[in-house]
């Protein structure tokens, strides 16, 4: 009997600020077309994540009156235990209900079935589209995947060394066979993230391989 295969596409943070705006990933616009080609494929569900921050989010340098790209240690919210985490302080980006948080122009967002929002709590950074780094709260993503009986997740978007990698690592932890589509991902600093994902059992593929898997 053929093994069950129910694939989902997760489009990570294809937003204006990450492509053209205040925190643009190098050459990010180059992946719009590859992402669109995958959005046209017959996935069981197509889900997009969005950073959707309050204006005083903990990840913003302005919040701490510190230089952009400096680093601090952040701690779990009050009344919760957990290790301190190093936090890069970013330019203000993807503020909720502003143009910077919108899907980038040219993305075929009409093909997306569900959008999940992350980074909405002012005191918690959230790179992964699944949950915060202390695993205190989940987004709507786990429930959406479970509801559709998903077995495999295919991840694309921005940025490879931050939100894409965090989402992929969490996908493995949630029990999904996990694929990252390298020609539909751009990183801030292209490097060790690929090795780290492969060590976790994540499969690195290109768009054409995905289309063959989907018999597209």
TrEMBL record:
InterPro entries (UniProt xref): Isochorismatase-like_dom, Isochorismatase-like_sf, Isochorismatase_Nicotinamidase
GO molecular function, one term: metal ion binding
Entry's family note: Belongs to the isochorismatase family.
Keywords linked to the UniProt accession: Hydrolase, Metal-binding, Pyridine nucleotide biosynthesis
Protein name per its UniProtKB record: nicotinamidase
Pathway assignment: Cofactor biosynthesis; nicotinate biosynthesis; nicotinate from nicotinamide: step 1/1
Domain of life: Eukaryota
Enzyme class, broadest EC rank: hydrolase
Isochorismatase-like domain ranges (all copies): 58-192
Biological process (GO), any one: pyridine nucleotide biosynthetic process
EC code: 3.5.1.19
